[in-house]
């Protein structure tokens, strides 16, 4: 299939899958279910497994994630030479797999943990379990060649996160013309928000010093400059007082702040900010999908939209497991503020 034919086919296929997805107004169907068994029946055909609620919740999440990755791989396989950015997106799950492997080995577990299958695009040799050096050999993460101590796991995970972002950003920059500009905007918005939320969580929940927070942020490259295109927005809020509305009222993203009333105690709420940003990012991704049909941008957008759907399903599954009512379920999933 030549490039133009493949692009047309992939866009049509992706659009058809989005039409059946639980995104936008269709997401409301997730909140009509009353139990995890109902949720399973809504999402999948066939008989619902007979399993305890905890296991059924995990099964739903696992199957949804596996289905999403299988759909994405089937899409990009239509290209003889998929754009680097389309492959780089898969590293999010490849590196998540390695985090699970590292944690399992660190804790002395005997069995290989659940691995998300990205088919022929995987560069890790899971058959070499439990030899971590052989698992990562000849891959972009060959530096991960020793079993980390439990106390080191967070540092290893942070290094994987940073590498994923750098590789993704480098892949975006290989695009040309308007496509590079548009995909850069989408990825920059996503990573910038990720960094902002890291700063807020670490300041509010852990009162972490600024220098430690910086070490956990994602940068476009190893220079970690103050004007880094991906980290600048997060670096700009490092010294803001999380309990002072005056410090935040003129922030460029003040539209995402939790409400403030004069005369009342206020503190920035990371969960509120995250839900508000999610609404905006979802809308940006949906708009981008339709903006440039049959382009790399449309496929990157599809990937982001489906990731958002996964987040929604996870939230609903967890809420049902905790027996939340419909209104609390929507709030927990961020849906009540979305539309």
Keywords:
14 helices; 339 residues; mainly alpha
Outline the structure in words:
With 339 residues, the protein is mainly α. It is 58% helix and 0% strand. It is built from 14 helices and no strands. The protein has helices at 3-19, 36-43, 53-76, 84-88, 91-106, 132-136, 153-173, 177-206, 210-214, 232-235, 245-248, 270-291, 296-321, 326-333. Helix 2 (36-43) packs parallel to helix 3 (53-76), helix 5 runs antiparallel to helix 7 (153-173) and helix 8 (177-206) runs parallel beside helix 13 (296-321). It starts with a helix and ends in a 6-residue tail after the last helix. The model has no long low-confidence stretch (mean pLDDT 92).
- Poorly predicted runs: none
Over the alpha carbons, how many angstroms does the gyration radius reach?
A: 21 Å
- Sheet-strand content, in percent, reads under 5%
Query: Helix share of residues?
Result: 55-70%
Which structural class matches the secondary elements?
Answer: mainly alpha
The 3D shape can be described as: globular
In sequence order, what are the helices and strands, one letter per element?
HHHHHHHHHHHHHH
Largest sheet: none
Average pLDDT number: 92
- Count of β-strands: 0
The number of helical runs is 14
**Amino- and carboxy-terminal Cα gap:** 40 Å
């Amino acid at each position: 299939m030549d490039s133009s034919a493949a692009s047309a086919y992939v866009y049509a296929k992706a659009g058809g899958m989005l039409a059946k997805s639980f995104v936008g107004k269709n997401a409301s169907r997730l909140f009509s279910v009353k139990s995890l068994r109902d949720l399973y029946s809504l999402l999948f055909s066939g008989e619902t497994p007979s399993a305890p609620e905890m296991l059924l919740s995990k099964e739903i999440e696992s199957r949804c994630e596996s289905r999403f990755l299988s759909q994405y791989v089937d899409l990009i396989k239509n290209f003889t030479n998929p754009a680097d950015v389309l492959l780089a997106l898969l590293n999010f799950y490849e590196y998540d797999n390695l985090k699970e492997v590292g944690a399992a080995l660190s804790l002395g577990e005997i069995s290989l943990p659940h691995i998300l299958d990205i088919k022929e695009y995987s560069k890790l040799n899971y058959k070499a379990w439990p030899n971590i050096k052989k698992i990562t050999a000849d891959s972009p993460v060959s530096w991960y060649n020793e079993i980390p101590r439990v106390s080191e796991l967070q540092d290893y995970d942070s290094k994987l996160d940073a590498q994923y972002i750098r590789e993704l950003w480098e892949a975006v920059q290989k695009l040309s013309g308007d496509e590079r500009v548009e995909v850069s905007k989408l990825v920059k918005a996503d990573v910038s928000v990720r960094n902002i939320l890291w700063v807020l969580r670490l300041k509010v929940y852990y009162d972490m010093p600024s220098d430690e927070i910086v070490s956990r942020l994602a940068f476009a490259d190893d220079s970690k400059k103050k004007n880094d295109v991906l980290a600048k927005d997060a670096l700009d809020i490092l010294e803001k007082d999380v309990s002072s509305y005056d410090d935040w009222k003129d922030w460029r993203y003040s539209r995402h702040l939790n409400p403030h009333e004069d005369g009342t105690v206020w503190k920035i709420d990371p969960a509120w900010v995250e839900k508000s940003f999610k609404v905006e990012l979802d809308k940006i991704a949906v708009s981008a999908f339709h903006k440039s049909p049959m382009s790399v941008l449309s496929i990157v957008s599809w990937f982001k939209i489906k990731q958002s759907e996964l987040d929604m399903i996870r939230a609903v599954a967890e809420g049902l497991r905790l027996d939340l009512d419909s209104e609390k379920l929507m709030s927990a999933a961020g849906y009540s503020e979305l539309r």
